[in-house]
Amino acid sequence: MHIYITFRLPDAARALVADALSPDDVCIWGQDLPETERKAAFLQADVAFGKPPADWLTESQQLRWVQLYSTGFDDYLPLYRSGQRPDVIITNLKGFFAQPVAESAIAGLMALYRRIDELARLQTQKKWVGGAMRPTMHLLHRKHVLVLGAGAIGQAIQQILNGFDCTVTFVRNSQPPTMADLDALLPYTDVVISVLPETTETANVFNEARFALLKPSAVIVNAGRGSLIDEDALLIALQSGQLAGAVLDVTRTEPLPADSPLWHCPNVLLTQHTGGGYDEEDMDKLRVFLRNFVKYKKGLPLDNIVDFDRGY
């Protein structure tokens, strides 16, 4: 069986792969090849790990399964929804990033509340403000937090917030309150944390009308998908004082264009889609793939098969 790995992994990963494969398995490390040779090598693979270009999937006659190294699979949605669905199983890393994303979301929120971002800027300027900043700081303690998405990330966020005695309300599709109840909940919310996937229902879920429902002291944290927020409406809400702050781990366009006003907007913390990162990330991703690979070879059901019809 031929396995194609699309991205670079630490040297220790190669030893882990070698130990896991049987003698008749061949692992092709795409990053070792000249760019001009990678596609041809991919087309020989039965299994791929990483994020191959979507159009390569339609050209391959050999490929049967792709294990994505991410939770998101936006690049593949048009391919499947247009009826070009190849006979390929796609699995993702659903739930894998729950703890790091939860910690990053709360860290960003705390940075705004405790003015850590501003203090870091003052440090680079060697400017002492000290006591004058104290009245501008806020507590997370006992805040009302609305979490959009009750999956693994949402649950991890709740566990952290429990330590601050926060009141946590989930908005989900499976049971009330649902997205239909969102407008009624927003006026009573101190913090909104979105970890929703991108679907047709979630696009621009936060728009001018919904920002207007929030109290001026509210903060929004987006650790889901950039398409969930109308960024023009967000800028207006922040600049007008309708919204106190925003933590954005994701933006509509990534990398964020250099001319985006978000770079310079006060009370915006941009964490550049690093929320899921940690020191053992790549090795742990590989371990997930290898566990699924064992199941694949045994003909067992794979973990985290993507449901393209549902969009997650």
What does this structure look like?
Helix content is 33%, strand content 14%. The strands form two sheets. It has a six-stranded parallel sheet, with helices on one face. A five-stranded parallel sheet has the order 2-1-3-4-5, with no helix packed on it. Helix 5 crosses helix 7. It is elongated. The two termini are 28 Å apart. It folds into two domains: 123 residues, NAD(P)-binding Rossmann-like Domain (Rossmann fold); 173 residues, Rossmann fold (3-Layer(aba) Sandwich). The chain is of the alpha/beta class. It is built from eleven helices and eleven strands. InterPro entries: D-isomer_DH_CS, D-isomer_DH_NAD-bd, NAD(P)-bd_dom_sf.
How are the SSEs ordered, and which strands pair?
Layout: E1 2-5, H1 11-20, E2 26-29, H2 35-42, E3 47-50, H3 54-59, E4 65-68, H4 77-81, E5 89-91, H5 98-113, H6 116-124, E6 144-148, H7 152-162, E7 167-171, H8 182-185, E8 191-194, H9 208-213, E9 219-222, H10 231-240, E10 245-248, E11 268-270, H11 281-298
Parallel strand pairs: 1-2, 1-3, 3-4, 4-5, 6-7, 6-8, 8-9, 9-10, 10-11
Helix pairs in contact: 1-11, 5-7
